[in-house]
Each structure stands twice: as C-alpha cells, then as structure tokens.
Design goal:
Length: 259
Amino acid sequence: MAMFEVKELTKYFGGLAALSDLDLQVEAGEIRGIIGPNGAGKTTLFNVISGVYRPTSGEIIYQGKEISGLIASKIAGMGVVRTFQRTALFHKFTVMGNVLVARHLQAKVGLFRTIFGTNRRIDIEHEEKALEIIDFMGLSDLKNELADNLPHGHQRSLGMAMALAAEPKMIMLDEPVTGMNPTETKHMTDLIRKVRDEWEMTILLVEHDMKVVMGLCDKITVLNFGKKLADGLPEEIKENSDVIEAYLGGAEVVELLGE
C-alpha cells in the first residue's frame, strides 16, 4: 500500500473543474514532483490535500486513513505539513522564536504564555528540538537574528525549519526555490535531499524550475487543466510527447525540461 494516495479527486469552483478525477500514489521516502503549466491545478491540489479546500469528490488516503475534508490543523497533526510560496514567518521574532512557535503549536501548549510570559521556564525538550532543527537547516549562527533581517534564501530555510518543527512524516513544498539565485537554489535542493534522507521524509514538491525538478525528484506527475497528463521517472517525462505539447507546443522543450 502506498503511503499517500489520491483517488478520483475532483474540485469544482462554480462550474469549473480545477481538479478532475485525479489519481496519485506516493511511496514512503519518495520525492514526488508535481508540475504543469500555469493553471494546471497544482496549487489547488496542495490546497485540497492540506485542508484549505474541501474536495468536491474523491478520496485522500494517508497511511491507510482517509483525510479528505478534514480541517487543516487536523491534517497537520496527523503528519502532513505544507510550506507556502510566500514564506509565512513571524518576521519580528528571532529564528529561534519562529521554530519554537511552530513546536508549541504542534504540541498544543499555551503559545502566548510560552513566548511572551514572565517568570516562565521554556520547556527544555522543545528548546532542544528547536535547536536541533535550526542546526540541521544550517541556521545556528543566525538563531538570534530576526526573521525580517534574513536574506531570502535563509527565510525559505527557516520556513522549512518551521515545517519540520511540527514533526511531519510528509511535507509539501510549494515552490521552494522561487526567487533564489543559483547558489541559494543549490543549497535548498541539497537541504531537501538531506531532509528526505536523514529525517526519512516523504516529499511532495511543486516547482517551476524544471532543472531542479528533474535533478531532485524520484518520480514526476504532470497536471494539465486539472487532470493527470503523465506520471513517471524524470527521463520518461522529458521524452513524453504529451508533456512537450502541453508546455510549449513542442518548441524549446529540451531546455525547459532541464537538459
């Protein structure tokens, strides 16, 4: 049985099908790329999986349990956590403060008292775990820096650190290298591999940088107009005539798909 499965997933907005009878199976420990032209349904898929939207029909199965239509906090508590295109940070908190917020939200303790309270002692277990995650993400030297002062690449790393603080088993990365320069992009792709390998994480990845997708993902699913167009290994996707047609009508596709 696949760790994560989508069965005939459909989502309508008015009379428009943003997703239509979509099937998807992801194995534990896999990095699965979700790609497609603008408007293909990638963000809608992430929103439905993570509980932002309720599906119109179909099933979402995670570790053998149906999570279709559950609220976002319930889904996250079960181990499916999402990052966003625009990094959702507490910009006036330090790096450490941001990761502690995520830790305590996951632990369902008194967040306000923990962060702002007087005469309190930070729970040692949460502090140690937060420091472990910060070190893992290469942010130890910046743990006391305000999130607002971090460069873009480090802000994206902090966003992933906050996701890891919730102790997920599957993490959904929404355009993790958007806006990054080549050095930052390489650093982030290395981190994603490290998260998968050392944290035994399953990863769903939406990303427009095809070189990153082709070099990072074990398998790729291509969406077009809300439907699955293709599924397979990166090499298979590169050579798929339907994928080539969907992107560019056959022109310049080699460069687009990462050659």
